[in-house]
Amino acid sequence: MVDSKLCWLDIRKLGDLTPAVLEEAVHQRIDGIVAADMTLLADLPPTILRVLVHRAGEPTDGFAGADLVLVAGSADDRAKLAEAHPGTEFGRHVEIFDAESLETACLSARMERWSLLDFRDPTKIPLEIVIAAAAGCDGTVVTTAADAEEARIIFGVLELGSDGVLMPARAVGDATALKQAAGPATGEIPLVELEVTATTHIGMGERACVDTCSYLGKDEGILVGSHSKGMVLCVSETHPLPYMPTRPFRVNAGAIHSYTVSSHGRTQYLSELTAGSKVLAVDTQGRTRVVSVGRVKIETRPLISVDAVASGGQTVNLILQDDWHVRVLGPGGAVLNSTELRPGDRILGHLPTADRHVGYPIDEFCREQ
User: Fold this and answer.
1) How far is residue 33's CA from residue 338's CA, in Å, rounded to a whole number?
2) How many Å is the Cα radius of gyration of the chain?
3) Are the CB atoms for 347 and 363 separated by under 8 Å?
4) H, E, C per residue of 200-227
5) Are 6 and 32 a contacting pair, CB within 8 Å?
6) Considering only Cβ atoms within 10 Å of each terminal Cβ, which end of the chain, N or C, has fewer?
7) From residue 291, how far is each of 3, 276, 350 by CA, in Å?
8) Close Cβ partners of 213 (under 8 Å, ≥ 6 residues apart)
9) Please, what is the Cα angle at 271 between 283 and 257, to 5 degrees?
10) Helices in the chain by DSSP H: which ranges?
11) CA 319 centroid distance within chain
12) Which of 66, 62, 73 minimizes the C-alpha distance to 51?
């Protein structure tokens, strides 16, 4: 298994859109292209692997120009082809549809340098078995996916995922979608220290608890703020409370008008989040991961407004449920009860630089107060 995720596009049924999709593939730094005619790939940069999928009985005169030929056949078939084409690398193509073919796939993943796996059934359990069988091996496993959504799932199976995904290209934009599906599970976001300047009890209003489909860490939460250019790191309910059990999947996030950061850097109002939405989980080191929302609980509660300022003078506001068990994170992972915050206390936050329009960053004048 390899460390980085590989993105391959299959252009064999693309037709007239081939030149445009290849241009996008180069721009998106796609790792490999599968084609039936290698002459279509002649002008690709050497960073893109030119791949041919070969079945037994098909002609072999099209191997010229291919960097890698994946053969659906026996080891003897591959050996004969390798002997006849010494300048070409060969790997194995396996279609999995029963227990015997699954065992063949496991053997290929353990023994071959390249394995292209095509699972005929929608369940991902056979892929889990192959990934487990290939643990610690040096080969590369690429799995076919019908679309970017399936690719995203394949990249995450067993928290390891397939080394790569081969997805058919049907339109311009598919290369971009595949690269996004393979995006890193973690990234970083710059956090800053904010100094609390005031807290005010503002009465009743609706607040949102964001229940995710993932366990969140003790130093992990989501970024929430009244303004798109200033947010505070609200901690998950992973820390013990005297009157209720911990809920390590939950963040008591703030009033419903508040922004949070979702996938691809877009902001969303807490009130917009629903089951299946994506939000960015952030820890005190600024490391991030995208997590799925399982539920959002919106209820009427007393609210407290927290004002803070960054060292550069930027002001930040966060409105939370007015209760001491609702917490934010401070430097060093300090867990701070919202009702006990006082002027001079230091909390962690994030200062996005762009204004927002329907959640997307945009360079325009916008004043929030």
Assistant:
1) 53
2) 25
3) no
4) EEEEEEEEEEEEECCCCCCCEEEEEEEE
5) yes
6) C
7) 21, 9, 19
8) 249, 291, 292, 293, 294
9) 85
10) 18-27, 75-84, 99-111, 125-133, 148-156, 174-181
11) 29
12) 66
Residues in the chain with pLDDT values less than 70: 1-4, 56, 158-159, 184-187, 264, 353-369
CB atoms within 10 A of CB 1: 16
CA angle 206, 210, 211 (to 5 degrees): 135
β-pair type (89-96, 114-119) = parallel
316 in Cβ contact with 225 (< 8 Å)? yes
Name which of 270, 217, 274 is nearest 246 in CA terms: 217
C-alpha–C-alpha distance, residues 269 and 259, integer Å: 5
Question: pTM for this structure?
Answer: 0.64
Q: Which of 313, 304, 302, 301 is closest to 342 using CA atoms?
A: 304
| Three-state DSSP class for residue 288 | strand
The tokens describing 132, both together, are: 């487990």
Q: CA 235, 237, 239 angle in degrees (round to 5)?
A: 95
The sign of the CA dihedral 252, 254, 260, 263 is positive
Q: Which residues pair with 220 in a beta bridge?
A: 283
Q: What share of the chain is helix, strand, coil (3-state, %, to 5)?
A: 20, 40, 40
How far apart are the C-alpha atoms of 254 and 252, rounded to whole Å?
6
Burial class (CB in 10 A: 0-12, 13-18, 19+), 354: middle
Q: What tokens appear for 318 in the block?
A: 């966060």
pLDDT per position as a tens digit, 215-257: 999 999 999 999 988 999 999 999 887 777 889 999 999 999 9
